[in-house]
Amino acid sequence: MGLLIDYLYVLTIATIRAYKWLELRVLQLFSGTIQKLWIYYSENWLGIVVHLPDQPLKKISEKEEKRILASCGYNSLIHLKVNNLSIFTRSANTGSLAMGEAYVNGDWETLNGEEDITEMSCRMFDKNTHKYFFNWWPINRFLFWLEHHAFNLQTMGRAFEVGKKHYDLGNDLFESFLDPWMQYTCGYWAKADNLNDAQLHKLELIAKKLDLKPGMRVLDAGCGWGTLCKYLAENYEVECVGITVGAEGVRYAEENCKGLKTEFRVQDYRDINEKFDRIVSIGMFEHVGYHNYRKCLEVLHNCLKDDGILLLHMIGVNHKNMWLTEPFTHKYIFPNGQFPYYKDVVEKIEGLFIIEDWHNFGPDYFKTLEAWRDNFKRNWPTIADKYGERFYRLWNLYLSASASLFKSRKGQLWQIVLSKDGLRREYRAAR
């Protein structure tokens, strides 16, 4: 049955691509009108001044600048240089996917620095531009649902795809922008002023929320490079098992945690069938997918001892108009990723766990991503020969646009503490 569904999905995607190819040909007949509308709304709605190829840069008078800023509601202009006029019809055709591909191909750039990419993306989130992409031609909404939500894209057969395509790209890449603890999730900046401290404070926050005791057995579901396991084993004298879909992460973790009571496996969460005093999952739930939330939580429920604690750390969404899968990120960065919607999480928790605490520190992810991007740019010369200029543009866009998700507050970062039937002892979640 699974193989048949996979074939059906491939056929569906091929049909969507064929339709979009034909739609683009029709849109090209109206390229002049689309270009004018694109430029008008960019300036008056988003405060983005568009400069066309083979033309002198626009000179914006002080009076005109005030008019545009009054119209869009922002306090500064963004200057966007278009290097390929096809961007206008392509973005009408495939939205953010086309914009992302165009940037990677060098078809547009921001003239006042790459930091403006974050601000431009933030404004697009502010104004829900993706909603208008759906609304101008309603079939876009149906095709998006068909491609990203109708099928289960996180089956056992697809579970390791994100590991191979993202997490196994190379440890040197991740070492170039992460902190020394190789933490690839949001730091905790409440009392920190730099990335290293923010990530250490995050590790300690998790440990406190788990209410650990020496000798406990802890599962880290989605352990990355195993450094949370290392931290807990070293500082709290617990035994840790880490599972991940990335083989490079396991190799790193095994070398880094020698001599500690830790074990690391390349393993899908659905294959776990052991008992643990505590379970923690940091940044894995975004890869589980709506179709599998209940199954994932049932597995974790089965593995957790009756008086245990489960901590879920995830990016989430509670804006009704936000999409849960972003097409460019799905295609080039995190295949099959999906942001959990808060109602879906609560619905799937019901009957399995009691919510002991729900902590949102989404703005801290903006600081974390800004720090990652700065590190990535600063250390890029050390890995440039291996990855190439196109990869640099791809990852610079990924980090910059991701930062805008949290700057705009359309993305949240949740830590949810769960117990099986309510803890019978006093529990106050750390802050």
TrEMBL record:
Coiled coil: none annotated. Gene3D superfamilies: Vaccinia Virus protein VP39. Keywords: Lipid metabolism, Methyltransferase, S-adenosyl-L-methionine, Transferase. The keyword Transport does not apply. Pfam families: CMAS. InterPro entries: CFA/CMAS, CMAS, SAM-dependent_MTases_sf. NCBIfam families: PRK11705.1. Belongs to the CFA/CMAS family. This is Cyclopropane-fatty-acyl-phospholipid synthase. It comes from Orchesella dallaii. The lineage of its organism: Eukaryota, Metazoa, Ecdysozoa, Arthropoda, Hexapoda.
